[in-house]
Amino acid sequence: MIHLDYIDREWTTATTPMVCMHCENPTCAQACPADAIKKGEDGVVRSALKPRCVACSNCVLACPFGVPKVQIEMELMMKCDMCYDRTSVGLRPMCATVCPSQALLYVTAEEARRLRRGNPVNTFRFGNEEVRTMVYLYLPQGQESLEVEADVVNDIWRSSE
């Protein structure tokens, strides 16, 4: 349920995993006219409910991270749900289990600070909008949030088409 995105396709084959950030206030769910996207009490934002999803792509356009993907043939939005079938029974998500470089972790923020250099953050700025997430990214020590310029968001959105 994750996908890889090219960092700079013109110059390198380097990729980065694109996982759902599980926002505190998920815009994908807010933009869904069918009320098909739900956030659980545990904070995990689920893929769309099949009986409700109308494959309108509003969630794709609303997500500041460009994560949801609409599977046209299935008429369903699908995205990372932290392998809810695994994490709900105490297992790690599959991506964290099989990541060969250990770049993807499924640990608490405190454990992440202990295991890695840098600063795990879950606050992102998109213009005037601040988005807090369950998922942390590593930034250089001392940097508390990530400001994303509109051009970067547009590039991410275009590359996911």
Written description of the protein model:
- It contains six helices and seven strands, in the order ββααββαααβββα.
- By secondary structure, it is of the alpha+beta class.
- The protein has one domain (3-159): 2-Layer Sandwich (Alpha-Beta Plaits).
- The strands form three sheets. It has a three-stranded mixed sheet with strand order 6-5-7. The protein has a two-stranded antiparallel ribbon with strand order 1-2.
- Strand 5 and strand 6 (129-139) form a beta hairpin.
- The model has no long low-confidence stretch (mean pLDDT 84).
List the helices and strands and how they pair.
Layout: E1 3-6, E2 15-18, H1 27-31, H2 58-62, E3 69-71, E4 76-78, H3 84-87, H4 94-98, H5 109-115, E5 119-126, E6 129-139, E7 146-148, H6 150-159
Parallel strand pairs: 5-7
Antiparallel strand pairs: 1-2, 3-4, 5-6
Task: Write a concise synopsis of the structure shown.
With 161 residues, the chain is α+β, with helices and mostly antiparallel strands.
Number of strands: 7
Side by side, the strands of the main sheet go 6-5-7
Radius of gyration equals: 16 Å
The average pLDDT score comes to 84
**CATH topology, what is it called?**
Alpha-Beta Plaits
Number of helices: 6
